[in-house]
Design a protein that fits this description.
Layout (H helix, E strand, L loop, with lengths): L3 H4 L26 E2 L3 H13 L6 E7 L2 E8 L16 E2 L5 H13 L25 H5 L17 H8 L16 H15 L3 H13 L5 E2 L12 E2 L7 E2 L18 E3 L1 H12 L6 H7 L12 E5 L2 E10 L2 E8 L4 E7 L6 H13 L9 E2 L3 H7 L1 E4 L5 E4 L7 E6 L5 E9 L6 E5 L2 E10 L2 E7 L2 E5 L1
Antiparallel strand pairs: 1-3, 2-3, 2-12, 4-8, 5-8, 6-7, 9-10, 10-11, 11-12, 13-17, 14-15, 14-21, 15-16, 16-17, 17-18, 18-19, 19-20, 20-21
Length: 460
Amino acid sequence: MATRKECVPFVRPLLALLLVGGGPATAQQRVDRHVGDGPRAERIAALAAGLEHLGMSGAILAARDGKVLFAGGIGHADLAGETPNTATTLFEIASATKQFTGAAILRLAQRKRLDLDDPIAEHLPGVPDDCQAITIRHLLQHTSGIPGSNSRGAGSDLAAVLPHFLEGGPRHAPGTYYEYWNQGYALLAEIVTRVGKDEYPDYCRKELFEPAKMRTARFTGDDPPRDVTVAIGRPTEGAPRSALEHPYGAYGFQYRGMGGAVCSVWDLWAWDRALHGTKVLDARRKAELFAPGLEDYALGWNVYQRDGRTVHEHSGGVRGFVCNVVRYPDDDGAVFVLCNRNDANPYGVTMLLEHCLFAPKGELPEPIGPLSDALRAPLAGTYTDARGNQMTIENVTEGPVTFRIDWASGPVTRAFLVGGKDDEEEVVLFEWSGTTPLRIEREGEKVSGITLHSARYVRD
């Protein structure tokens, strides 16, 4: 359950990869795979297959100018490798669920059932005296002053969890300090339930999912839709789990409102279209939803400028699943990356897709292929250049081959080695920002040196 700032790994860039074009796909079509018209869409389709060689498993969607340019799956939804992921496969989106909690609160405000600046004590019984100044807005923007470590408490009894959640009161005056606090969103879900006169998941279904035509969206614990694949998440720790299985035993205060939404990339595209129009929220409430506060956090979204364009973004991570959900309102575009492996890099894939959405057509990168099995062992080892920079290539017989450079000045570059599209002997350095060909020197079967740009690395 992480924010953009908590889960994004450091990446030292070199280039960029995936592309997009135009196409008439709508959320209603619900096709397993869609490739729009134009060279960008065609290139993304070619490049998406290469992502599986880098450990990616999930589904992606990329759109621009209100058109889906590519939607499709990568890898498999099951553990046996028999059921492919597609654009209709369901994944849990963890903390990206917060956008729905924010929208649910605004839906109630739109109907004058509450105000964002209401003290939470107006809607929740048992709020202690030292927390009377905390408002709904403070919870939405993580500025309540309650520390993120106040996370103990589970089940469905507010009276049982509230003393733990609010223990010690605000450490900072509400509204003056940002600290990401998941349990604040559990309290917001309870406000939705009490003011909306419906359980939080049911309210979201009726007031958000149905108007937006998010036809297969669910919450953990729900029954699966008919004839729809539900992904199995492969965690780095713990047992595999279905996207619809509760990661924390039940959908109580330990997870409600802060995570637990389950959807496909098409569901998210339907939601994006609803936010683009006024099906769910009017113009005033949408402006509030995306108005950034401290640390660029709005109401369930990070909102900031990247490369001169406005970005709405939220990531998520829970056992078996990680994701990144991004909107580009200036371009009427979006990128959704949903993964059913905890070791996948949704932020890196986002950067690739974003580059391809907005890069000049003449700068579209070439597709990649798997690194030849015959090159894996000969390449493995450490190499050093004249300046003392050290290159390390791991020895693995299957899966992605990782590459790192420990620069003498201190930083570290991490990347993958892949093959070229058509040449089995080609070796390409792949970073989430793009690709760089390597020149390989051999002494018989042994690799003796590697040239990256103009720097020559000699085997130690």
